[in-house]
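To: structure subgroup
Subject: Chain for Friday's discussion

All,

I'm putting the inputs and outputs inline so they're searchable in the archive.
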Amino acid sequence: MTHSDSLGHTAHYIARVQTISGAIPWFEGGALDPWDHVEAAMGLSVGGFHAESVAAYRWLAQHQRPDGTWLAAYQNDAVADGTRAETNFVAYIATGVWHHYLVTGNGTFLAELWPTVKKALEFVIGLQAQSGEIYWAMDTRTGINKDALVTGCSSIHKSLECCANIARVVGEESSFWLHSREKLGNAIRNRPERFDRTWENKSRYSMDWYYPVLTGVIEGRDATRRLNERWDTFVEPGLGCRCVADEPWVTIAESCELTMASLGAGDRDRALDLFGCLSRYQAEDGSWWTGYAFADEAMWPDERPTWTAGVVMLAADALHGLTGASRLFTAINLPEPA
């Protein structure tokens, strides 16, 4: 199978799993969460399934709650987990909508989705602490969970960049979003004590290591230094990136995100090596396994999620410049001040 055939099959797989309502569950018959739904929709955009991608964002617009949020999980267009609204889940629509605009140049789409994006991001920055971090979630029973995640906040940092860009294109003020982003970035870089205060530290997870690079929180020499510091901890040569430092398990999504983080840090050779070892994890129908337990020499778990397929498409685009969105996760692009 050629490289382009492989990607074509991947995009077709996401489109096949998408339901008639526009929802993209993790796999056929499964649930969805708002973040992974957007990740899969971006894969559709890269693969040329533009109408299907638009349908996915319209699904979010139709299911947005009055406070701007989406709940933790949905199944068959109904709430499957209503315990909380996670801020990074809610924010990610800005990244997806801006990504689709970069791919298509469709300003009508951008204007249509802007009210949904704006309402979502207003909720998110309403949960920003004075010290800059954004609280993890609004619990529907107990209120705001006043702790923060490095990975989640880093994802929001990219979403605020995208929100500011959308605002500028549709003719609205962008400084509001940029100010929130600046405070958030400062907290992630300089206030580590504000994260993981009420639960176990997440530093054993590879995402906490590379996400600040992937999302533009840490740049340049600092990004290179950060990736070098723990590369050998997390990367299993020839197999991919571990999800957790102390588990013999590489995951395809983390490997693809680290591919893009490496590109953003200027290390194209490393990115190519990492992405190049992943093709063994693609199934015949175009889908991709979640991960590989290398001690057992087994694909595990027995799942091939649409969001994994989506991030494969994003990494391929970043490496090979397939669309106008190819640099979204490898460069920072802020709107000029008004």
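Points worth raising on Friday:
Residues 205 and 244 are 4 Å apart (CA to CA).
The chain has one domain: 3-320.

D.
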